[in-house]
Write a structure and sequence with these properties.
Number of domains: 3
Shape: elongated
Strand content: 15-25%
Number of strands: 23
Low-confidence stretches: 620-640
Structural class: alpha+beta
CATH class of the largest domain: Alpha Beta
CATH architecture of the largest domain: 3-Layer(aba) Sandwich
CATH superfamily of the largest domain: DD-peptidase/beta-lactamase superfamily
Largest sheet: 7 strands, mixed
Mean pLDDT: 87
Length: 641
């Protein structure tokens, strides 16, 4: 057997070749490492130095104090206070159900707390801390602090909470704040304000709180905090102080607000009172109301369900969102249209048989008084609320001329008040009806617009603004709730200037006729004689009753046989003192029946307090605010319309 012959030179060659490749490979790796080192240490030095610095320095937002809301006399309507809150960060807490159960053994956590936590969790991001308990006392806070190590992702925080001392009084006007949700974040990002809300959890959701959110929130401050490797704060490097929110002074008197809301009792409705000379809102009522404090912590499921499902709709802001037929409160403005268009100039008068008929028609449009009012001119038509007179006037004016004129008083348009969500109401026209129903306009529809029925819809705010404009001789002022803004940082107060919205060219003699007719409404023989009785000041007013459901021709209306929510609405507009008005208002009592008996007494209580300082069931106080006028014979009662 032949032995295999080895070639040492050949083997040595391949060994050196492999060794060379290995050496080249290793050197290549070292070269790559060197290049990477050069890239990181030289080329990317600035970038990584910034990252390292950011790991070492944290930017901590400092949330500013939210501005206060005060009434005209300095009474606090909304303020802030610090409370201990127990909060859970879901992403760090592990099993939430177990964590909450164990917390419940340590501290009192109610079912309402758990429901609210679940609702807030569904509205929040997983890495945000969410309150499970608020308003912890010092003993509870200390008890948890001792056991803190047992609960990862759970911490006690000190937060600034909003509080509304008067509860439900003025809730729809003041509004409330709530937790920032995804919709709010989108709006903040779109407006460029998102960075100013770092660290903030709440934002204005309605009323003044929402409209003046930018002013109330203030400017967020920041601290540059140096931290160690474990994330603990070492020292504060720099600090930018927050700028507290602006304090708002409202035009309302909290006592007047309380009187107005209490006057409604358990009835549903709305009231708006305005200073006709400035547009300042004196009282703003939406009944029933709600307690805005329910929303600050995040409203629980049961209360939210009740507020949303209640037939009384307590969350509806009736003064600007509620729309109603104006009824006979529309007549003074129809009267002004007739006078200014020379359709019913004195000594024009009619004989009222108790109904109105269109030519070539058997249909009769009934007057509220079946046997009529006899001979009626414009002034008397307003005083006794003669339907027949206004049926004919509306038809002579025509729907286009009529709506074009009354639009100047604010009907069919938003008032511009500093509260969001306002409804524009409706002034019907043939074009509107064709778009809406694909039907032509009929003369009979014009007839009933003359008495504030048909398609015409108004808000209580519009009625109050129109009344104020009439009281101010055609000068329309923009309604507003805020009269001054105070800076807590500088102590400077800036007054909000009144704004003229429109000037209606009205003849003095025509204004005098309408105003005298409205003054006679509260005198013997007028539809609100009981409201004006022994007032101590002169009142110009108009009552109204608006149908909720129609009744058959020649059928008699019987409120006792109709479901309560189908009964007529009661309306009342007024201004006083009649010779130099400082208050104009509109009142609506839903399903209240007659304006003079249901809505009028509410208005009287408001005017008594505003003009005389007289609270309900108290003797009148002498006041220099109003010129006292004592009409004679006010003890006489009169009919209601």
């Amino acid at each position: 057997m032949l032995r295999e012959v080895k070639n040492p030179q050949h083997e040595q060659y391949y060994f050196r070749l492999r060794l060379g490749f290995m050496a080249f490979f290793v050197m290549s790796l070292f070269a790559l490492l060197a290049l990477r080192f050069i890239y990181l240490q030289i080329t990317q030095y600035t970038h990584y130095q910034t990252l390292a610095e950011n790991n070492r320095i944290s930017m901590v937002p400092i949330v500013p104090n939210r501005g206060l809301i005060l009434d005209k006399n300095g009474v606090v309507l909304a303020h802030n206070f610090f409370v201990y809150t127990l909060e859970i960060t879901p992403s760090k807490a592990g099993n939430l159900k177990t964590t909450i159960a164990e917390l419940g053994q340590l501290l009192e956590i109610s079912k309402a707390d758990i429901k609210r936590f679940a609702k807030l969790k569904s509205e929040s991001r997983n890495f945000e801390s969410i309150p499970i308990r608020t308003h912890l006392n010092e003993i509870e806070a200390a008890r948890f602090a001792v056991n803190h190590y047992r609960f990862p992702g759970v911490a006690i925080k000190s937060r600034l909470y909003r509080h509304y001392p008067l509860g439900k009084f003025g809730a729809h006007m003041i509004g409330y704040i709530g937790r920032i949700n995804s919709k709010d974040l989108v709006a903040l990002e779109k407006s460029g304000d998102l960075s100013n809300y770092k660290g903030s959890y709440h934002i204005g959701k309605s009323g003044v709180e929402q409209f003046y959110e930018t002013q109330l929130h203030g400017q967020t401050g920041f601290e540059q905090v140096e931290t160690d490797a474990d994330g603990h704060a070492v020292r504060v490097i720099a600090r930018s102080a927050p700028v507290p929110g602006t304090n708002l002074v409202l035009s309302v008197d909290s006592k007047l607000q309380e009187i107005a809301e209490t006057a409604f009792g358990n009835r549903r409705g709305a009231l708006v009172a305005i200073n006709p000379k400035t547009g300042a809102v004196l009282s703003y009522v939406s009944q029933p109301g709600f307690d805005p404090n329910l929303f600050v912590d995040g409203i629980d499921v049961d209360n939210w369900k009740w507020l949303n499902e209640s037939l009384d709709k307590p969350l509806v802001n009736r003064p600007i969102r509620g729309i109603y037929p104006p009824g006979s409160t529309f007549k003074p403005f129809v009267a002004m249209a007739g006078l200014e268009n020379a359709k019913r100039l004195p000594p024009y008068r009619i004989s009222d048989p108790g109904y109105y008929s269109l030519a070539n028609s058997r249909h009769r449009y009934r007057d509220w008084k079946p046997d009529g009012h006899g001979m009626v001119d414009m002034q008397k038509a307003i005083t006794v609320s003669c339907d027949t007179f206004f049926y004919g006037l509306a038809l002579d004016l025509g729907i286009i001329r009529l709506t074009d004129f009354v639009r100047h008083f604010g009907f069919g348009a938003k008032s511009g008040i500093d509260i969001r969500g306002e409804n524009a109401g409706l002034l019907p026209t043939p074009e509107w009806k064709m778009r809406r129903f694909k039907q032509p306009w009929y003369q009979g529809e014009t007839v009933i617009v003359g008495i504030g029925q048909g398609y015409t819809l108004v808000t209580p705010m519009q009625l109050a603004q129109a009344t104020a404009t009439l009281a101010n001789n055609g000068v329309a002022m923009r309604p507003h709730t805020v009269v001054a803004m105070q800076s807590p940082a500088t102590g400077r107060t800036v007054n909000v200037a009144p704004v003229v919205q429109d000037r209606i060219a009205l003849k003095a003699e025509n204004i005098a006729i309408v105003k005298q007719g409205m003054m006679d409404v509260t005198l013997p023989g007028g539809t609100a004689a009981s409201v004006g009785a022994n007032a101590g000041y002169s009142i110009a007013a108009k009552t109204g009753t608006a149908q909720v459901i129609g009744i058959k021709q020649n059928a008699k209306y019987d409120s006792n046989s109709i479901n309560e929510r189908h009964r007529d609405h009661a309306l009342f507009i007024a201004y006083a003192p009649a010779d130099n008005p400082t208050i104009a208002l509109a009142v609506i009592v839903e399903n209240g029946g007659h304006g003079g008996s249901a809505a009028g007494p509410i208005a009287r209580k408001v005017m008594d307090y505003y003009l005389l300082g007289k609270s309900p069931n108290e003797p009148a106080a002498q006041s220099a605010k109003a010129k006292l006028v004592q009409p004679a014979g006010h003890n006489e009662s009169a009919h209601d319309e």
